[in-house]
Amino acid sequence: MKSHFNKLEEIDRKRNPFKVPDNYFARLNEEIMNHLPEKEIVPPRTVPFWDKVKPWVYMAAMFVGLYITIQFLTRQADNDNVASRQSVVQIQESYWSTVQVTEEEFYQYLEEQLVEEGYFDYMYDQYYLN
Amino acid sequence: MEMNNEETLLEALRNPHTIRQGFADLVAAYSERLYWQIRKMVLSHDDANDILQDVFVKAWTNLENFRGDAKLTTWLYRIAINESITFLNKKRSQNNISIDEDDSFLINVLESDDYFDGDEAALQLQKAILTLPEKQRLVFQMKYFDEMKYDEMSEILGTSVGALKASYHHAVKKIEKFLGEED
Q: Hey, are the CB atoms on A7 and B183 less than 8 Å from each other?
């Protein structure tokens, strides 16, 4: 194996067995440059003002839309509550206007019934005497 | 090329008004090194010359894709090696050479090339190199002839330094054996 190694060492690695035509490297660079295709010079793209602000305008519009929607929905909910309260009052008022007795007369009647049936005495016995 | 020079070159290549001059500087800096790399792979001067032209055309048209992750040298070497491998694959296919066979057919190319004037020992060495697998051959040529550092080789070939050292070691052993048998 040592003799093989010596064999490789015997070869002068610095002596280049490959040759090139005369003045090859002197002409090479020019030849390469002449072979290059033309490169289209693309000027730096100028971004129009609208394109720059467009994302911000869209975002602002989205928030405004969201705000208006929320406002509309919450107001609608308030209105519904007020309307439902008003409708209860209106039903009560319309009820007393249709019956023959007044509201005071009705409560007076209920109280009399309770007295008559001994309800108050019963409640008194339940809570105070026991 | 020094790092400062490379940065100056990159600046020139990024500016549309100086790109052509910058590229001329790049060609002047690397054309000879790349030529020898290609020549040692494909052996024939005419083929090496054609491939080198293609390498620079490819570099020129893909300049916008160079992101500066690697050094310019590394990038150019990779293009040169890939182009040479593609060329050799075509040659193998034209000569009906299977993937398992060595590239001994290239020795005919070498012997018929007017620009090879090596003695018998140089010819035997080239024959021995052609018996190596492609990657080992590349590593051997880069190390033995160009004395390239393993770190630089590792960047170009994308292989670890350890694997490259092992490859070179195997290549030297095979070449020694071949030369011993030919004796």
A: yes
Of B27, B118, B179, the CB nearest to A7: B179
- A7: chain B residues, CB-CB within 8 Å: 176, 179-180, 183
| DSSP-derived secondary structure for A56-118 | HHHHHHHHHHHHHHHHHHHHHHHHHHHHHHHHHHHHHHHHHHHSSS-HHHHHHHHHHHHHHTT
Q: State the pTM of this model.
A: 0.68
Q: Does A1 touch chain B (CB under 8 A)?
A: yes
Per-residue model confidence as pLDDT tens digits over A103-117: 788 888 888 888 887
DSSP state of B116: B
What are the chain A neighbours of B53 within 8 Å (beta carbons)? Answer: 31-32, 35
**B24 contact A CB<8A:** yes
Q: What is the ipTM of this complex?
A: 0.80
Best CA proximity match to B55, nearest among B85, B34, B36, B69: B34
pLDDT at A21 over 90: yes
d(CA B125, CA B147): 17
What residue ranges in B20-144 does DSSP mark as E strands? none
Q: pLDDT tens across B39-95, in order? A: 999 999 999 999 999 999 999 999 888 877 788 999 999 999 999 999 999 988 888
* Closest Cα in chain B to A43: B16
- Domains observed in chain B: 1-99 (1.10.1740.10), 118-183 (1.10.10.10)
